[in-house]
C-alpha cells in the first residue's frame, strides 16, 4: 500500500481551483478587446516584457547624467519625460514625469496616497512598502518620522516636500550628489544611486558605491 494512502481529505491543488471573480473578469475583458481588434493577442505579453525590463538602473543613469551635465540637468527639471527619452528611455503610456531636485534647503519625498502610482518606466515595479497603506498614509501626515524610520534624519531647517503621484503624473527625486565624488566617472556615480534615493526615503552616500 502506498505510504500516502489515508482517509483525511486534501485541499484541491492550486491549479485545480476554480478561477476567481477578478480572473474571470480579466479573461473576459481581454478576450473582448481582442475580438474587437482593439489589441493584438500578443500585445499584453509584450507589455509585460517591457515592464519586466525596467529597473532602477535606468533612473540611476538619469541621475548620474544630471550630476555631470548641467545642460541635461536643466532639461530634466523642465521636462523629465523628454530628458529621459534623450537617453533612449521610452515611455509606454501617456504619463508625465516631474523630476524634483533635493537641495540643502529642500528634501523631496514621493508617495501615492490612493494606490501605487510610480515612475515605472525609469524605476520598474514599486517595492511592497511603497504600496502599503501605512506608508501611503504616514508619508503625508508625518514625513519626517517616516524618513527617520528609513534611517534618514532631515535637519529641522530643511523643508520636506511630499509629492503625491497620480495616474497621469509621476515623480522622480534627483538626489544631491555626495561630496567627495568629484573625480568619479558617470558610471561610478550611477552605481551609487539606489531606488530608495530616487523615491526620497534615503540619501545617496559613498557607502552605496559599487565599483565597476
From TrEMBL:
- Which reaction equation describes what this protein catalyses? an aliphatic primary amide = an aliphatic nitrile + H2O
Instruction: Print the keywords alphabetically.
Output: Iron, Lyase, Metal-binding
What EC number(s) is this enzyme filed under? 4.2.1.84
Q: Which InterPro entries does this chain map to? A: CN_Hdrase_a/SCN_Hdrase_g_sf, CN_Hdrtase_a/SCN_Hdrlase_g, CN_Hdrtase_asu/SCN_Hdrlase_gsu, Nitrile_hydratase_asu
Enumerate the Gene3D superfamilies for this protein. Answer: Nitrile hydratase alpha /Thiocyanate hydrolase gamma
What start-end ranges are recorded for coiled-coil regions in this protein? none
- According to the entry, every stretch annotated as the Nitrile hydratase alpha/Thiocyanate hydrolase gamma domain falls at 22-201
SUPFAM superfamilies according to UniProt: Nitrile hydratase alpha chain (SSF56209)
One example of the protein's molecular function in GO is:
nitrile hydratase activity
Q: Which residues are noted in the entry as Fe(3+)-binding?
A: 112, 115-117
Q: What class of enzyme is it?
A: lyase
Q: Which NCBIfam families match?
A: nitrile_alph (TIGR01323)
The family classification in the record reads: Belongs to the nitrile hydratase subunit alpha family.
Which protein are we looking at? nitrile hydratase
Q: Which organism is it from?
A: Candidatus Accumulibacter vicinus
Amino acid at each position: 500500500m502506498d505510504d500516502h494512502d489515508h482517509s483525511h481529505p486534501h485541499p484541491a491543488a492550486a491549479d485545480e481551483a476554480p478561477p476567481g471573480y477578478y480572473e474571470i473578469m480579466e479573461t473576459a475583458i481581454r478576450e473582448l478587446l481582442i475580438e474587437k481588434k482593439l489589441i493584438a493577442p500578443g500585445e499584453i505579453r509584450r507589455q509585460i516584457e517591457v515592464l519586466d525590463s525596467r529597473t532602477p538602473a535606468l533612473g540611476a543613469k538619469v541621475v548620474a547624467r544630471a550630476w555631470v551635465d548641467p545642460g541635461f540637468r536643466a532639461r530634466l527639471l523642465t521636462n523629465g519625460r523628454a530628458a529621459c527619452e534623450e537617453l533612449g528611455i521610452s515611455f509606454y503610456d501617456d504619463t508625465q514625469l516631474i523630476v524634483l531636485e533635493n537641495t540643502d534647503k529642500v528634501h523631496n519625498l514621493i508617495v501615492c496616497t490612493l494606490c501605487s502610482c510610480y515612475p515605472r518606466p525609469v524605476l520598474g515595479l514599486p517595492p511592497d512598502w511603497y504600496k502599503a497603506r501605512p506608508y501611503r498614509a504616514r508619508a503625508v501626515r508625518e514625513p519626517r518620522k517616516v524618513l527617520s524610520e528609513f534611517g534618514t534624519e532631515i535637519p529641522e531647517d530643511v523643508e520636506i516636500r511630499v509629492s503625491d503621484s497620480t495616474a497621469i503624473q509621476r515623480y522622480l527625486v534627483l538626489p544631491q550628489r555626495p561630496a567627495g565624488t568629484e573625480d568619479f566617472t558617470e558610471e561610478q556615480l550611477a552605481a551609487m544611486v539606489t531606488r530608495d534615493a530616487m523615491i526620497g526615503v534615503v540619501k545617496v552616500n559613498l557607502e552605496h558605491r559599487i565599483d565597476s
